[in-house]
Every structure is written in C-alpha cells, then in structure tokens.
Amino acid sequence: MKKSLITGITGQDGAYLAQFLLKKGYRVYGAFRRSSTVNLERLAYLGIKEQVELVPLDLLDLGSIIRVLENVQPDEVYNLAAQSFVAVSFDQPVATGRITGLGAVNVLEAIRIVNPKIKFYQASSSEMFGKVQNVPQNEQTPFYPRSPYAAAKVYAHWMTVNYREAYGIFACSGILFNHESPLRGLEFVTRKITDGVARIKYGLAKELRLGNLEARRDWGCAEDYVEALWLMLQQPQPDDYVIATGEAHSVREFAARSFACVGLNWEDYVVVDPQFMRPADVELLVGDASKARHVLGWKPKTTFEQLVEMMVEADLRRVRDSLGVR
C-alpha cells in the first residue's frame, strides 16, 4: 500500500486530496501544527476524518519534519501548507515568507536527508504571475509577484526546481489558478459571496461588502484540481504544470451569478468598500493548461456556472441547518 503525507490537510485542497488518495487505496497521513487548534471540519464534511492518520509537524523545524519522514516513510509528500491569504500577507510579510517560502524548503531538505526517492509536490500559485507579462499564462510566463504571499511562493517554486536539478529529487510544482468549492474558507472572496447570498436570502444580512469588482480570475473546482496533483507524481519525469480552466470571470460576474441562483439582483445588495481593496491588486489571471492536458491527460470537469451553483447550494444548506429550517 502506498503512503502519502499531506501538509495542510485541514485546508480545502488537503481535504479533497486526502479523499482522492484514499479512494486510490493510499494510506494517508496528514500533518498538523501541534501548537494550533486542529480544525477537522473539512475532513468531517467529506466523511473521511477517521480514515486519515494525523501527525504533528512544524514546517519551520527541520528536525520535526525529518522525524515525521523517518516514522511515516511516505512514497509521496504533498506540501499544501502555507499562510495562504494574500491580504494577510501584507500585514504579516515576515511570517508569510517563513511559512510559505522557507517551510517548503525545509520539507525538501528533509526529503534530501531522509530519502531522496520520496516524490514531492509543491503547491505553487497563479498569484506568482501577478502583474502579468502575457495572457494567458503558461509554464514559460515570467513571474511578477504583487504580494508578499506571491513572492514567498516564487521562492518556494524555484527552490523546488533547484532541488530537482541539483539532487535528482522527483519534485513537481503545480501552478494552480484559483480553485473553489463548498470547503473554501470564508476569507476568500468567492466563499464570502456565496455565504453572503445565503445569509441575505434567509434574512440574516442586508448587504454584502466587497472590494475590487473588476478583478478577473480563472476559477476552477478544487475537487477537479487535486487529481492533477496526483497525476504529476505518476509521470516518468518530474516537471511543473499550470492547472487552470482557461476562462476568466470577474468578481462582479461571480456575485451576479450567485445572487441569480436565489432569484435576487446583486446590484440591490452589493456595496463596494475601499477597506477591501489590496495595496497592490492583480487585475487579470487566466491560465493555459495545454501542457497538463497533453502530458497528464487532465482537464477540468466542472463549469464556472456549476461551481457557483454548487457553492451557493452548500451555503444555503449551512444557513438552513443553523436556523433549523427544513
């Protein structure tokens, strides 16, 4: 039986990846920070909480990672842990650099020391393209990060390349464009919108405050995307891949479609609030996943419309359950 270790298992991607790997017959270990309160909500939502073996691990402590790798002896390590909120990274740039950037290097170094045959996946991000140099973005597009989070991801990305080339480690980076789901955190604009729609629908709120409505993103479904992570580590050679839908939609479109799902006009409820504007924003991200399609045989299954509807329905259920409405 193959064994995998997932850092960031309590997040959206970690939970869906764990579910996917369990279906593939893997023994799944999930790393968590001992000092933090472990939130297993997402694993419980997917009904897999009891099937995942949790192990304490500190991304900033090389010795901690070495001990976990020696004890677990995984075939594959998926590094999904990060300080992943772009807005927060402006307030906490040093912490973001340590966790999101150096944390990935600590995992790579531990693999080099314990067993260089362990396959490694690094969660890179479309935010690395930032002030985009060309549209759409592919694996050859130069990076131009526009936030401390994106800059930390660029460092982790290039260190993954370095460990691959210098030490022969099977290390891949997936440059994932925005991917959403009912498990997305409320800190992210998509979930903020669908949760807001549900609360307004049931009379718990009267308005929804958002920042830049013109920002355009390539939004896919997280459950579709985790398959690509696994596929990268099954190839004969390690490489980096853009994972995206190839379609861009604005925050305005996401809001309009979300409100339409419950028969409401978004313009009656959305308020643009300057406090939600970033110091430096990224206006347009849209990916070209041709390489993933040709090499991995991967393509998205969920449309933008289906994704929005799925998220709105999930939040409507959550609000109904909280109110005891049948």
TrEMBL record:
It is an enzyme of class 4 (lyase). Residues 5-311 form the NAD(P)-binding domain. It catalyses: GDP-alpha-D-mannose = GDP-4-dehydro-alpha-D-rhamnose + H2O. The keyword Lyase applies. GO terms for biological process: 'de novo' GDP-L-fucose biosynthetic process. Its EC number is 4.2.1.47. Pfam families: GDP_Man_Dehyd (PF16363). It comes from the Bacteria. Coiled coil: none annotated. InterPro entries: GDP_Man_deHydtase (IPR006368), NAD(P)-bd_dom (IPR016040), NAD(P)-bd_dom_sf (IPR036291). Keywords: Lyase, NADP. GO terms for molecular function: GDP-mannose 4,6-dehydratase activity; NADP+ binding. Its cofactor is NADP(+). Catalyzes the conversion of GDP-D-mannose to GDP-4-dehydro-6-deoxy-D-mannose. Belongs to the NAD(P)-dependent epimerase/dehydratase family. GDP-mannose 4,6-dehydratase subfamily. This is GDP-mannose 4,6-dehydratase.
